[in-house]
Every structure is written in C-alpha cells, then in structure tokens.
Amino acid sequence: MKSTGLICLATLFICLIGHTLFAQRVLIIGLDGFGAEGYKIAKHPNIDALVADGTLSLTTRPVMPSVTMPNWTSHLSGAGPEEHGVVNNNWTIDKHELQPIEADQEGFYPSIFKLLKDQVPNVKTAFYYNWANLIKSFNKKYLDEVSFEDNFGYANNYQKAYDFMLKNQKEPTMTFLYTVHIDHAGHDHKWLSPQYITAIEEADVEIGKLMNKLKVENLYNDTHFILIADHGGIPSGHGGVSMSEMQVPWAATGSQINKLGLVDYPNSNKNTSLVVANIFGLKDIPTSWSGVLPELILKKKNNKMKKYFR
Ligand SMILES: [Zn+2]
Q: Which of 211, 224, 219, 214 shows the shortest CA–CA distance to 280?
C-alpha cells in the first residue's frame, strides 16, 4: 500500500510539473500598416528588447494584394489568397467570389485557431482587435475570448490580453493582439509622416507595459512572442507592389526560437501559422497550407512537419 501511494504521489507530481512546464503560451502582436521602413525610422526600445533574444526579418513579404484582410488571414491561416479566398477587405462569409480551396462546416478556411482546438487538449485561444472587418474571415467557434475595442483604441485590449494569459497560465494559450492605429495614422497623415512614426512609438510603449506585467508574474520567459505586420505603405496608401508596401517586420522570440538577430531569408506572411504550429507540436497540417516553416529560426524541429521545412 505504501509503495502504491508513493507511486501515485510521484505520478501526480510529474503530471502537475509537466502540465506547468510544458503549457505552451504564444502571444502574437499584430501591428497593422507597420512597414519595414517605419521600423527602421521609429524608436521602439521595447520591441528591440523583445526581439533581442530572437530573430528579426525586415524583408518579409506580404501576400498580394498588400491590403489588410488578405494578409491577416494569411498570417493566421498558413496560406495565400489563392487558397483562403480572402482577396480584399470586403470579404464576408456570405459574399465572396473566390471559394476557399478547403473549408470547415461553416465555410471558413482552416485557421491556426481551428488546428489548435482540434489538436491541443485544453488550449485557450483569444482574439483582440479594433478594426471591425478583421474577425470576419475567422470562425469564432474556435475562439474562447474575442474582444473588439471601439474608436480604434487598443490599451484596454492589451490589458485584456494580459488578463487572459494570467488567468490561463496553466493551460496552453494562443493570444492574437492586434491594433490598426498605425495604419490609420498612415492613411490620415501619410506613411512615414511624424504622426505615423509617433503611432509606432505609442504602440511600443504599450508593448513595453505588457512585457513588464508579464515579467512581474513570471510569464515572460516561457512565452513565445511573434511580432507581425500586414503591409507597409506609400504616402497615398497601400495595395500596390512597391518595396515600401511589400516589406514588413516579422520577429519571433522564445525558447524554441534561435537567437539570430537580423536575418534576410525569404520569409512570407504565409509562414506565421506554421511557426505557431511547430511551437505547439501540431502534427496535422492542412495540405493546402502553402506557407513554409523556416527551419533556420527553430531550435526544435517537429519532425512530422518535415515537408514544410526550407
Ligand atoms: Zn492593413
């Protein structure tokens, strides 16, 4: 009896420790309209500190056209507009010309949120946004928490994302935290205008506050952070194929990401979800996902995903 009790206790201990240690936590910070040129001009010490232990690309390509909905759908769905069918900002589930090449029961192309819900026990997912159309190409049934912030504000959502990660710290979590205010500054005042640069620097302050709060709660070191953008811009806007529109920052940091600093391997907004899938160890990847897993930035290979390695 005595030894059985000990074995039970040991098993319970291992389960508890394992559960705590291996609960994966990914935070994707999405900054709309944040081009590589703006990244080089603006001062963003908190982003610099965040990516210092990871990998940064300033030559990542958006999918075409270089507009918002196609690119965020690509980031979070591992594929291009050719596959997911979101080719403009007017896409709705009821009205779109190009059908997705594969779809769930409700007609949505498979997102990283669906894959996680299908393959990771107890995973919690969250989606924070302040541009109303953004959520339309994602099936909300795979999201545990959704928060839209009015008037293009984002500070409340940053707080909510923190609360979500804190509350669910013992479970695997995938948090998508997005703001559109940099893009709006570009449209209102032109890309690279003082107001546009200020908008980047304001986002950096909010990111810094969030990082500090995560550090206080000991949640920082075992979180994977991915910082992404959809497109850059030219003074009159975006949607074209100039290099100003077609190069965006892409950064990742965390225990499974190599510390490479600035890299220039060919990267695409289509690759983001494959990196997330690898972090969570997902085995079942939709065959229509056309993104590629960038092997050189990863410490741990998920061998079942071998065909996706560069
Ligand atoms: Zn955009």
A: 224
Q: Which helix (H) or strand (E) holds 226?
A: strand 223-229
- What kind of fold does domain 24-308 have according to CATH? Alkaline Phosphatase, subunit A (3.40.720)
Whether 308 has a pLDDT exceeding 70, the answer reads no
Whole-angstrom CA distances from 203 to 34, 38, 310 are 10, 13, 32
Does 4 have pLDDT greater than 60?
A: no
Cα-based torsion angle of the residue sequence 21, 22, 23, 27 in order, rounded to the nearest 10 degrees: 100
List pLDDT tens digits, range 222-256.
999 999 999 999 999 999 999 999 999 999 999 99
Q: How far, in Å, is the centroid of ligand 1 from the Cα of 237?
A: 10
Domain locations in the chain as residue ranges: 24-308
Ligand 1 centroid to Cα of residue 55, in Å, is 23
Cα(186) to ligand 1 centroid in Å equals: 10
DSSP state for residue 109 in the 8-state scheme: P
Band of residue 304 on the pLDDT scale cut at 50, 70, 90: low
